[in-house]
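Exercise 7.
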Amino acid sequence: METIYVFGHQKPDTDSVCSSISLSYLKNQMGLKTVPKVLGHVNQEAKYALEYFKIKEPEFLNDVRIQIKNMHYNEKVLVDEKNSIYDAYTLMQNEGVTGVAVVDKNKKLKGLATLKEIAKTVISGDKEHLNTSLYNINKALNGTVLLEFDEEIKGKLLVGNYQSDTFTKEINLTSDDILIVGNRFKILDYAIDSKIQLLILVGNYDLDEELLVKAKKNKINVIKTPLDTYHTVNNIALANYISTVVENKSSISVLDTDYRNHLLDIIENYKHTNYAVVDKNNTCLGVISMNDINNYQKLKVMLVDHNGFSQSVEGIEEAIIEEVVDHHNLLNIGTPDPINFRSMPVGCTCTIIYHMFIESHIDIPQDIAGIMLSAILSDTLLLRSVTTTNMDRKAVEELAKIAHVNPLEYGHNMIKAGFSIKGKTAEELLEQDIKTFRVGEKMVGISQIFTMDYEDIVKEIDHYIDRIDELASGKFDMVITLITDIEKNGSYILFDRKSLDLVKDIFNNEAFEEGTYIQDLLSRKKQVVPYVIEALEKRA
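Solution. The predicted structure, written as tokens, is:
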């Protein structure tokens, strides 16, 4: 069963984190295999909720782009460097491929061997030398080992097809030589006396007992083969170690964590057919070919607390979106096939998930009830936000019973824990909860900071505005920041300096300036976003 990742938006707040965990739990109870993830640093408020109810923080998800490990590649085409060219060729034929990865005994990549390189070796390669094992030679010749003294054979290859007298007079044999010969007693006797390295007897010829005894005494390796001299000479080249035809400089590998687009770039640049797949330790996992580039499995995901590409994980366009559960306005998520899309005008995503538990007749355990309660209390600002609905209130009432907490007392402590700005920079505070909206050609960033220490921000207000200006000169055309004081039940407004006239229109106040306080302004979604959209559309 494929794993489905469940996650919220890029700035994980309490609802984003807790709804990911809760929906994942629900789906797993329904028979799916899901894992909750986060796309960024979990804020202090969410950490408080997770620690209070003893739930592990979800792991970070960097992106969902297609990686090599999501693609099909052949894991069977690995050949040990001590195997023969013949073994590699046989594997290619059996697997229907044109290249194999050559590895050492620990499966570390040594290079690639291809049909092209094998053909080149057989046709025009070195036919005068062997570098292989006795086992490989015997296998390539379909032979029988009569005497074995050396595991590895490395030397010069000779054929005893001269007149016996000519051969014994003109050919100086040494212990490095490998001789192919048939029923030629005089040559055989000379070769054995010369203590050559290997004697290959063609036509299944058996040594006379006298010569066999002498060969054994001189520790000469002896193989007999049913092949004739011609076919023995042709086949023995295939007995060489496959490593002898590998050129490391022409072998290009890719990491299993590399992205598909990276592989496409490599193919475009090098035009090779086969590429070894390795892990970070250079352990070979298989071979991927040009024929495999469109054979891949997209990652499956479920989105909570957002439904826009710009707010989601990198590479979301390459993933299969299975389901969306959200309480925000609809943005630009598009899917090629119909999906489960649950959107409701409530104060929190976890309110929707609570109803999904009820509809599915699945019991909510205490810890899951606790974090769902935490999310609703956070998103509705202890049920005081204008986004709060009766469904949110009812969910809080029921979840608090299961979690065994006083909702308002617990919620106050949770929010207080998340309010502290001590030790945090202006950059961190401005970007820890910023939502992105596109209005026509304009990109708008609206951030919200919850604190009981607005006086600390006032001391550095010019620094905060400078940082907002930097954001507005980068990926945003306009940035507004709400500094929300729960105890006062309102928000102070900061914005980039170039947008002053637009901000005056948004809040319908010609006297509006940096730090203006608006009583009862708690919801970015309902009390700011609609007016930003309206003001920008009027100016379009």
